[in-house]
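Need a sequence for this fold. Nothing fancy.
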């Protein structure tokens, strides 16, 4: 293969999310010393020449490449873990990483069933000899603490019954809390936190509809810029919208590493929703590559009886 073709193959192998392992094997595995020297000269994505004329690897690019190589491994492990252990470990990692990762905690607390969330709390006890609640209380500072502790402590009613009068009344409570944001942040409103952390999802979805009628705006529109509070409402009331937004962010050209990791988490934990949507395979087809791409597509296609 001519050098330009080899360099093009290398560039393609390292493009997108994941790594095209087969192309790398065919290009690199049996290359001679001289051939590899030519590859380094021509592949500026990974190799540079410093001010002293010394040829060396670009450590920033190498670091990013390590993330891509381990993406497949991480996806396989996350998929194999018991769901309770998986969620417990995701929450523990999010607490350690700090405020930018608190959205993962919101996502787990709001998208799991009551028994699934209780299972994650039990797994957390067993794995870390502490409770999720006490770790949140000791690590999270500021107004988000009460919301996060309340959400992970929830054990919601999961039946279909909704009291429309109560839902309408609570929509008005939320409306007042948001209108008075100049006096007190909505996330600091105790009634708002109580409603979001205790009411059933059908109740909250009915509340959201009443809110639309009362305010001529959706709750998520009103909470734009409110970060985890907006995510809470969206994940509880319109999960399809929430997970579509997370996936689109992960697949965007300027996605950071944490956004990309969300792709694995969402595909592994939300298979049924994504399969019902049907558009995800087409979205990822031209962006993912290598074994990671094969695994993600396979995860979305596999039969449940396997």
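Here you go.
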């Amino acid at each position: 293969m001519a050098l330009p073709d080899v360099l093009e193959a290398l560039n393609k192998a390292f493009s997108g999310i994941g790594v095209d392992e087969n192309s790398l094997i065919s290009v690199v595995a049996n290359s001679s010393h001289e051939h590899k020297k030519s590859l380094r000269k021509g592949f500026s994505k990974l190799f540079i020449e410093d001010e002293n004329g010394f040829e060396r690897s670009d450590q920033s690019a190498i670091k990013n490449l390590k993330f891509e190589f381990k993406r497949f491994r991480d996806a396989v492990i996350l998929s194999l873990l018991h769901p309770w252990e998986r969620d417990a470990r995701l929450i523990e990692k999010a607490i350690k990483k700090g405020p930018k990762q608190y959205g993962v905690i919101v996502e787990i607390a709001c998208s799991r069933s009551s028994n699934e969330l209780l299972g994650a709390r039990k797994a957390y006890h067993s794995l870390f000899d502490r409770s999720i609640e006490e770790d949140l209380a000791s690590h999270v500072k500021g107004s988000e603490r009460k919301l996060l502790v309340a959400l992970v402590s929830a054990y919601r009613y999961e039946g279909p019954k909704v009291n429309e009068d109560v839902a309408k009344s609570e929509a008005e409570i939320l409306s007042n809390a948001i209108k008075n944001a100049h006096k007190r942040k909505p996330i600091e409103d105790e009634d708002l936190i109580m409603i979001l952390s205790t009411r059933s999802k059908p109740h909250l979805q009915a509340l959201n509809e009443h809110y639309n009628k009362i305010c001529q705006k959706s709750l998520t529109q009103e909470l734009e810029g409110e970060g985890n509070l907006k995510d809470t409402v969206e994940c509880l009331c319109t999960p399809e919208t929430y997970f579509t937004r997370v996936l689109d962010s992960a697949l965007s050209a300027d996605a950071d590493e944490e956004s990309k990791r969300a792709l694995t988490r969402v595909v592994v934990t939300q298979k049924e929703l994504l399969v019902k949507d049907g558009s995800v395979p087409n979205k990822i087809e031209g962006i993912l590559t290598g074994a990671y791409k094969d695994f993600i597509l396979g995860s979305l296609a596999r039969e449940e009886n396997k």
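For context: The chain has a mean pLDDT of 89.
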